[in-house]
Protein backbone atom coordinates (compact mmCIF):
# COMPACT_ATOMS: atom_id res chain seq x y z
CA UNK A 1 0.00 0.00 0.00
CA UNK A 2 1.42 3.34 -1.04
CA UNK A 3 0.91 6.37 1.20
CA UNK A 4 0.67 9.82 -0.32
CA UNK A 5 1.95 12.60 1.88
CA UNK A 6 0.13 15.91 1.62
CA UNK A 7 2.18 18.91 2.70
CA UNK A 8 0.76 20.78 5.68
CA UNK A 9 0.45 24.02 3.74
CA UNK A 10 -1.67 22.37 1.06
CA UNK A 11 -3.85 20.72 3.70
CA UNK A 12 -4.28 24.07 5.50
CA UNK A 13 -5.08 25.85 2.24
CA UNK A 14 -7.78 23.27 1.49
CA UNK A 15 -9.28 23.74 4.94
CA UNK A 16 -9.36 27.52 4.58
CA UNK A 17 -10.96 27.16 1.13
CA UNK A 18 -13.66 24.86 2.51
CA UNK A 19 -14.34 27.28 5.36
CA UNK A 20 -14.70 30.27 3.02
CA UNK A 21 -16.99 28.30 0.71
CA UNK A 22 -19.27 27.64 3.67
CA UNK A 23 -19.38 31.34 4.57
CA UNK A 24 -20.74 32.34 1.15
CA UNK A 25 -24.19 30.96 1.96
CA UNK A 26 -24.69 33.55 4.73
CA UNK A 27 -25.21 36.33 2.18
CA UNK A 28 -28.72 36.41 0.77
CA UNK A 29 -30.20 38.42 -2.05
CA UNK A 30 -33.33 40.54 -1.62
CA UNK A 31 -36.16 40.16 -4.13
CA UNK A 32 -38.85 42.15 -2.31
CA UNK A 33 -40.28 45.61 -2.97
CA UNK A 34 -37.90 48.55 -3.36
CA UNK A 35 -36.80 50.23 -0.15
CA UNK A 36 -37.15 53.97 -0.74
CA UNK A 37 -36.17 55.29 2.68
CA UNK A 38 -34.49 54.09 5.86
CA UNK A 39 -35.44 55.84 9.10
CA UNK A 40 -33.78 55.44 12.49
CA UNK A 41 -35.58 56.46 15.66
CA UNK A 42 -32.80 56.79 18.20
CA UNK A 43 -34.92 57.20 21.34
CA UNK A 44 -37.00 54.12 20.48
CA UNK A 45 -33.96 52.26 19.07
CA UNK A 46 -35.96 51.30 16.00
CA UNK A 47 -35.01 51.07 12.29
CA UNK A 48 -37.87 51.47 9.79
CA UNK A 49 -37.68 50.53 6.10
CA UNK A 50 -40.16 52.42 3.90
CA UNK A 51 -41.35 51.48 0.43
CA UNK A 52 -43.63 53.11 -2.12
CA UNK A 53 -46.74 51.97 -0.23
CA UNK A 54 -45.61 52.61 3.34
CA UNK A 55 -43.64 50.76 6.00
CA UNK A 56 -42.09 47.50 4.75
CA UNK A 57 -40.43 46.28 7.92
CA UNK A 58 -39.14 47.45 11.31
CA UNK A 59 -36.11 46.19 13.22
CA UNK A 60 -34.88 46.80 16.77
CA UNK A 61 -31.34 48.20 16.73
CA UNK A 62 -28.52 48.59 19.20
CA UNK A 63 -26.93 52.02 19.35
CA UNK A 64 -24.07 53.50 21.33
CA UNK A 65 -24.19 53.74 25.11
CA UNK A 66 -25.39 57.39 24.86
CA UNK A 67 -27.21 57.67 21.51
CA UNK A 68 -29.15 60.90 22.15
CA UNK A 69 -27.76 64.24 20.93
CA UNK A 70 -25.36 65.23 18.17
CA UNK A 71 -22.13 63.30 17.71
CA UNK A 72 -19.21 65.38 19.00
CA UNK A 73 -16.17 63.13 18.55
CA UNK A 74 -15.24 59.52 17.83
CA UNK A 75 -15.90 57.30 20.82
CA UNK A 76 -18.51 59.54 22.49
CA UNK A 77 -21.11 56.74 22.20
CA UNK A 78 -23.53 58.83 20.14
CA UNK A 79 -25.12 58.01 16.80
CA UNK A 80 -24.74 60.67 14.05
CA UNK A 81 -27.89 62.63 13.15
CA UNK A 82 -28.99 63.95 9.79
CA UNK A 83 -30.12 62.87 6.33
CA UNK A 84 -27.81 60.56 4.39
CA UNK A 85 -27.91 59.01 0.92
CA UNK A 86 -27.22 55.27 0.82
Write structural notes for this entry.
The protein is an alpha+beta fold and 86 residues long. The protein has one helix spanning 8-23; strands at residues 37-41, 46-51, 54-60. It has a domain at 33-86. A 3-stranded antiparallel beta sheet has the order 1-2-3, with no helix packed on it. It is built from 1 helix and 3 strands; from the N terminus they run H-E-E-E.
Rg (CA only): 23 Å
- Indicate the mean pLDDT: 79
User: H/E order of the elements?
Assistant: HEEE
Q: Give the overall silhouette.
A: elongated
Class of secondary structure makeup: alpha+beta
> What is the β-strand count?
3
Stretches where pLDDT falls below 50 for ≥5 residues? none
Instruction: Tell me roughly what share of residues is in helical segments.
Output: 10-25%
**Tally of alpha and pi helices:** 1
Biggest sheet details: 3 strands, antiparallel
Distance between the termini: 62 Å
Strand order of the largest sheet: 1-2-3
Amino acid sequence: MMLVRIPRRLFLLGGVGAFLAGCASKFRSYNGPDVTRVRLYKSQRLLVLDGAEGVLRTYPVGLGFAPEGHKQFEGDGRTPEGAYTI
